[in-house]
Design brief:
39% helix, mainly alpha, globular, single chain, 10 helices
Length: 312
């Protein structure tokens, strides 16, 4: 049997440092990389690159990289002790921007993605200096959350001459696309990885493939878990329909306005992100964008969006 000499041995049981109360341990023993023999060569190579072959930073400056890393980690609730497995989201986003692998469009109220990332990271650092006296990356985690929550709930049309809802959409789109394309996150949500060329045979609600692991706590829905924090969050969503932001017909929000706190981000991912993982399974890091009827945003080529770059 021939072996690929360039193939790198995968470390088994790659899991993220997610506490049980935040949804961790729902798919015990599941390891998506144990099934890589069923993938074709191109798919296997793409997934291994995400595990072992992230390129050096080419787009971000040193300060921008540090800011982006903390921003992206806060958005997905990623906070780890030294030695814990984490997803290097900053490098994944940097690679997309360096190679102009955008979503193929941008809001007509926003600059191109590359320019928007630089401007929004600079604005975030400016806010950090105004409130705490140093760069965003040097702030305490709770202070970083507060700064992000300020952007998410900004009540004016402009934040540092950028539309805040569209900035939030930019950040969360790139964060989710990168995060849910990584095998460690597939393990967290029990996603079996690319189905090509193996395909599926267990079709139907609650049907599982032989290699899939059942949810260890199927009735533990974080979005319905009692507690003051959850009640406040649900009440805000019920009142505004946008996760606490006052509704405005001028905002083109894509529905990515959930709370930026670590626990909230993790809980919501655990309850609803299985499809997100599948959408980004074997792609090169760019999520597919469907129409959703949000004000200020329409299908590609219509008012509210401008074609940009190339899709990946």
């Amino acid at each position: 049997m021939s072996r690929n000499p360039s193939a790198k041995k995968y470390r088994p049981s790659t899991t993220l440092p997610l506490a049980r109360e935040d949804g961790g341990g729902r798919f015990p023993g599941f390891d998506v990389m144990a099934h890589e023999k069923h993938w074709d060569t191109a798919t296997r190579s793409a997934v291994h690159e995400r595990l072992h072959g992230q390129p050096a930073v080419r787009f971000f400056s040193q300060v921008e990289e540090a800011t982006a890393k903390c921003l992206l980690d806060r958005l997905v609730g990623q906070r780890a002790e030294l030695g814990d497995e984490t997803v290097d989201l900053a490098r994944m986003v940097d690679a997309r921007l360096a190679e102009n692998q955008t979503d193929g469009w941008h809001y007509d109220t926003m600059p191109r993605d590359s320019e928007a990332w630089r401007a929004s990271l600079a604005a975030l650092n400016a806010d950090a200096h105004d409130r705490f006296g140093h760069d965003f990356a040097e702030c305490e985690v709770d202070d970083q959350r507060d700064l992000l929550e300020t952007v998410r709930t900004w009540g004016e049309d402009r934040w540092h001459d950028l539309p805040p809802a569209q900035v939030w959409s930019l950040w969360t789109r790139y964060a989710a696309t990168a995060f849910y394309s990584h095998p460690a996150v597939w393990n967290e949500i029990g996603f079996g990885g690319p189905a090509y060329p193996r395909g599926y045979k267990a079709i139907g609600i609650d049907k599982r493939e032989p290699y899939e692991v059942p949810d260890a706590r199927p009735h533990d829905d974080p979005l319905r878990r009692p507690g003051p924090d959850r009640e406040a969050h649900n009440n805000a969503r019920h009142t505004t329909g946008q996760g606490g932001r006052a509704p405005s017909s001028s905002r083109g929000d894509r529905g990515n306005s959930g709370s930026s706190s670590d626990a909230d981000s993790r809980s919501e991912r655990d309850a609803s992100s299985g499809s997100s993982g599948q959408a980004s399974s074997a792609s090169s890091g760019s999520s597919s964008q469907g129409s959703n009827g949000s004000s200020g945003e329409t299908s590609n080529g219509s008012s509210g969006e401008t074609s940009e770059g190339k899709t990946s």
